[in-house]
Amino acid sequence: MRITAKDVAERAGVAASTVSRALNSPGRINEQTRKRILDAARELGYSVAPRMIERKGLVGLLVPDITNPFYFDIIRSTQEQLRIAGFMQLLIDTGESGRTEAEILAQLSQVVDGVILSATRLDAAALATAADALPLAVINRQQEEIPGVLIDIRTGLTQAVDHLKALGHRTIAFIAGPPGSWQNRWRWKEFEEQVLGQGLTPVLVGPYAPTRTGGAAAADALLVTEATACVAFNDLLAIGILQRLRQRGIRVPEDMSVVGCDDIFGADFSAPPLTTIAGDTKQAGRLAASRLIATLNGEAPRNGTTLIPTHLLVRESTGPVRTHPSLR
Predict the structure, then answer these.
(1) ∠ CA(160), CA(69), CA(210), 5° rounding?
(2) Are 122 and 39 in the same domain?
(3) Angle between helices 16-24 and 281-296 (to 10 degrees)
(4) 317 lies in the same domain as 186
(5) Residue 74 backbone phi and psi in degrees, to 5
(6) 197: helix, coil or strand?
(7) 288 and 270 share a domain?
(8) Residue 1 CB neighbours (<10 A)
(9) Which of 30, 103, 99, 19 is nearest to 60 (CA)?
């Protein structure tokens, strides 16, 4: 039977990426961990050919859309955490494309020490392949074998559904984001379960690009449903919905209530100010960077996902239900 780096990792109690660094880049891992890996490799008969490459001091941060204000605090907090640990951050916009993301990761494997993926558009298999090639941490994605941080929408979503129900809404739409987003699929699943659990009717509208332009198209589709309220995948979609509804003479919240997600910069001075589900994006960035740094320093991996709680911020875009605008 062929012995692989994964076998050595299991014997030594570390990640496969840590084995790769121990054998090929000994300057990037502490001596105690490297000795444990070498002992495991010898016990298993694994061939060792170290290349003595020094740490590069560079970590990549990949985001789907650098213009989305949601990523501003993540960019700043990861950069600060990495700087303290002696790393420089390389920021790359993947353009909401899983294919582009995979290509960039392949190019980065010889350039950086590790990568933080924020809202990755890779599927599970591609993400696992990338993790075998270089150390990763993920933000807003859940994959047990990879260190991750997830802004957990569930509590904030429960509060949003309770809030809309108390205002008299009985049919509530979810405005879906990009179809390649794991987070979008997860948010819809949680939304549907919670709305049904309250005895209300969920409606799926979309998917749409998570932008204000996408929100304009979503608003037109929303108005042909029976929904009197909606929860958008993110705040940019929600703000685009507000703008389009105003253009069409639909009053918010009198005719339609709108809830966003993420509490981005600008959500509180949209017209009207946006009710939204908020989580601590700065903390998400700091934790993701810290977990990747620990891996790069040769510490035993803490795989699995750390959850960041959320809560509802009630502003002026939600109000009591009135006659559906299509019936006015």
Answers:
(1) 65
(2) no
(3) 50
(4) yes
(5) -65, -45
(6) helix
(7) no
(8) 4
(9) 103
DSSP states along 224-266: TSS-SEEEESSHHHHHHHHHHHHHTT--TTTT-EEEEES--TT
Structural domain contains residue 172: yes
Could you list the residue range(s) of the whole structural domain that residue 288 is in? 58-151+280-308
Separation between Cα atoms, residue 11 and residue 84, nearest integer Å: 32
pLDDT value of position 29: 66
User: Domain tally for the chain?
Assistant: 3
- Contact assessment for residue 230 and residue 256, using Cβ atoms and an 8 Å cutoff: yes
For Cα atoms 6, 8, 12, give the angle at the middle one, nearest 5 degrees: 115
pLDDT in tens, 138-164: 999 998 889 999 999 999 999 999 999
Pairing relationship of beta strands 310-313 and 275-279 according to DSSP bridges: antiparallel
Half-sphere exposure of 158 (CA within 13 A, CB side): 7
52, part of any domain: no
Q: Is residue 50 part of a domain?
A: no
Average pLDDT, the chain: 90
CATH of the domain at 294: 3.40.50.2300
Return d(Cα 299, Cα 1) in angstroms, integer.
Answer: 29
Helix, coil or strand: residue 72:
helix
From 16, 17, 106, select the one nearest 62 (Cα to Cα).
106
Burial of 327 (0-12, 13-18, 19+ CB in 10 A): exposed
Distance between CA 248 and CA 220 in Å, rounded?
A: 9
**Positions in the chain short of pLDDT 50:** 49-53
219-to-165, 177, 231 alpha-carbon distances in Å: 21, 13, 12
pLDDT digit string (tens) for 194-203?
999 999 999 9
Look-up of token digits 């993926």: 117
Q: Count the neighbouring beta carbons within 10 Å of the beta carbon of residue 172.
A: 25
CA distances to 10, 66, 150, 268 from 3, rounded to whole Å, are 11, 42, 34, 56
Q: Are residues 139 and 72 in the same domain?
A: yes
Determine the residue type at 243.
Q
